[in-house]
Amino acid sequence: MLDIRFRQVAALVALSLSAPMAIVAQAAARQAGTVTAVDGNAVTIKTAAGAVVTVTVAPDAKVVQVPPGAKDLSAATPATVSDVAVGDKVLANGTAADASSLNAVRLIVMKSTDITAMHAAEQREWQRGLGGLVKSVDGTTILVASGAKTLTINTAPDTVFRRYAEDSVDFANAQPSSLGSIHPGDQLRARGTVADDRMSMTAKEVVTGSFENLSGLISAVDPSSGTLTLKDLATKKTVTVVVTGKSDLRNIPADAAARFAARSGGAGAGVPSGAAAGARPAGAGAEAAGAYSGRRAGFDLSQMLSRLPTETLADLKPGQAVMIVASQGGSSKPTAITLLSGVEAILSATPAGQQPITLSPWNIGGESEAGGGEGAGGPR
User: Fold this and answer.
1) Would you state the pLDDT for residue 305?
2) Are residues 265 and 336 both part of a single domain?
3) Are residues 133 and 106 in the same domain?
4) Pairing state between β 200-209 and 212-222
5) Which CATH number fits the domain that encloses residue 141?
6) DSSP single-letter state for residue 137
7) Which of 16, 45, 70, 358 has an alpha carbon 20 to 30 Å from 130's alpha carbon atom?
């Protein structure tokens, strides 16, 4: 997800264009960034481009504070330079003698504590949101397959759309997008106002992407080249996957995998009999396993990832079953975004003829207090 803090500062840059003409006339220069130091009336900031700028706030400068998400200055409150702290975001208007200094006649401040609180609230909304595989887009309504369920995502004129970057495995690199860029087969995650039955929502923000979902038994692991090879259960093709330092590798304990498999239902024709037991011994990741012991069927498997133990490519062995969500990017080989091992029981529970359970690319951060917004089956 894009850094919300810089996103809001960028919005404030646009706000400066609507300032009174007297101020605009003085605003020969404009700088926005994160405060790194405050010394009297001198505020040092680091811009998004990495430049360090010293902003000298004039005694008669107008200093205001705005809340995150402000679309104009109607919610601005008076402030002083002494209110500015390291970590805050600021937008300064004034005049500049060179690229590293600015004499400000106006300073707009967004407190880091407010940004953190807003970010935490958004994280909770993402966790409690809905998602799945896009079935269709009809006007402003998106139908999404989540396991056996079809969810309805209603959008509005102010819904924010973002799309996962094709050449990145980092969710923070999602780019501004539009409803028109969403197509059947895309994976979707949305936050907003969710109906009581969790079958529909009015979306504040929608993030989509086109990913590969792979699952099957590892046939080879090559840590030196950063790759592993598996035979995908869905396509029956042998696929080589690139694993990078940004790939999130996790292992699910055997007891947690068994519980999830029991909830997903069905005696499957997924993983061949005799597959190596890839889960770690009982007790590894016990906190994660216990946290889900009382959850209802249909919770989002991806939501428990952040509490599972991590592993490395060198920990993986031929014969283990894995589930992978990958980005094709600019490479001829898919790049792993998320990899979960220890999933023999989960894949074996997939009913014959059905698409194997898949993971979501979104690592929203923490488990869903609502028990997960997506069904256990089907891509997220």
Assistant:
1) 78
2) yes
3) no
4) unpaired
5) 2.40.50.140
6) E
7) 70
- Check: CB of residue 129 under 8 Å from CB of residue 201: yes
When mean pLDDT is compared across 92-96, 233-237, 244-248, 261-265, the lowest value belongs to: 261-265
Identify whether residues 173 and 199 lie together within a single domain: yes
Q: Give pLDDT, residue 301.
A: 67
First and final C-alpha spacing in the chain: 16
Q: Can you tell me the distance from the alpha carbon of 228 to that of 167, in angstroms, rounded to the nearest whole number?
A: 20
Q: Do 219 and 325 sit in the same domain of this protein?
A: yes
Give the tens place of pLDDT for each residue, 285-305.
334 333 333 333 334 566 677
**How many domains does one find in the chain?**
3
- The pLDDT of residue 28: 67
Do the bridges between strand 335-341 and strand 248-251 make them parallel or antiparallel, or are there none, so unpaired?
parallel
Return the structure tokens found at 252.
């699910």
Lowest-confidence segment of 28-37, 88-97, 281-290 by average pLDDT: 281-290
Regarding whether 109 and 16 lie in a shared domain, the answer is yes
Beta bridge partners of 131: 189
331-378 pLDDT, tens digit each: 578 888 889 999 999 888 766 555 556 676 655 433 333 333 333 222
Q: Are residues 320 and 333 in the same domain?
A: yes
* Domain carrying residue 156: 128-209
Specify if 103 maps to a domain.
Answer: yes
Q: In one letter, which amino acid is 45?
A: I
Residues 53 and 19 in one domain: yes
Question: Measured between alpha carbons, how far is 84 from 71 in angstroms, rounded to an integer?
Answer: 21
Phi-psi region of 120 (alpha: psi -120 to 50; beta: other; left: phi over 0): alpha
